[in-house]
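Annex B. Sample input.
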Amino acid sequence: MKPDPAQEPPQKSPLILVAAAVEPEARSDVADALEARAWVCCALERAGWAAEAWDITPSLLASPEGVSGHLEKKRASCVFNLFEGFGNDSGAEHRFRSLLEKAGTPCTGNSAAVLETCLCKDAVSSLLRGKGIPVPEGKTLLPGDSLSLLNDLPLPLFLKPLREDGSVGIDGNSLVTDRDDLPLRVGEKLKFFPGGIRAEEFLPGMEYSVSCIGNGPYIVPAVSVIDYGKWNAGRPFLDYGSKWDPDSPLYSLTPEPAEGTLKERAVQLASEAGKTLGCRGYFRTDLREKDGTLYVIDINPNPDMGSGGGFLRQCREGGMEKEDVAARIVKLAIENGRGGKEQW
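Annex B, continued. Sample output.
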């Protein structure tokens, strides 16, 4: 007798593990991923998946067997990767992704190789420049290097850690307008970031942000622009506090939707930069303008997915709700895990 379908056990929904960093006294940018994880889990469940939070702790990452064992136990269809490293270990981001790749579990966002490359501002600048993509003139300084390396760079200069993201290390001392201040400023930065700093020509114009989704070609939900001339906040750039400290004078700054030819140019450069670096899934490109020319200043291959972050804001401006964003990102990861090919 054929079994009654009504009596058959229901099919289990595919499981998505949503990974985020959990550590004691987490820095604001690290802790923000937990808010993102909450909405992602809800969105995935509304889209028909089973979603389960996965805490990535320093002790777990210290034991590769713990990561692989959890994946084997859960048999998840995909990992939604919101892990951006730890407060004192940004490199943990790409090491965790590498473990997922070794386990063969599909994972959202960019590969370990892309995450590692994009964490190094020197490497990104060299790769983009090699493809003819405009980037600021700059030099990398390591402890013990002579400041004479910066003699050919025009003032003002902008100093930032070589291997950090989320605006970590960007503050009021990052912009240098007097060459006599360089020894002190560079020394202070290298003290806190001995892995090196990047000194670049500061670009005084408007700042553009382009969110991209796809495995190639990319779709761009929206483009944002900041005209610092409209704000009387004391500095013409976003620092760490502007993103994570409500008491910062720039915290309330709201980028505007971009328009015109510079918007189209920003989209073109973001797409070219993503293709050059091998970005897949989703990422964000930041650019600044000088004398009518746009330059790529940063590629974030694992951008903040918090509700108040720029990536999700641009998705909303482009007509994409949270559920659409989460579902699309998971489908791209599964497609990529099945060997999806670029369509350039």
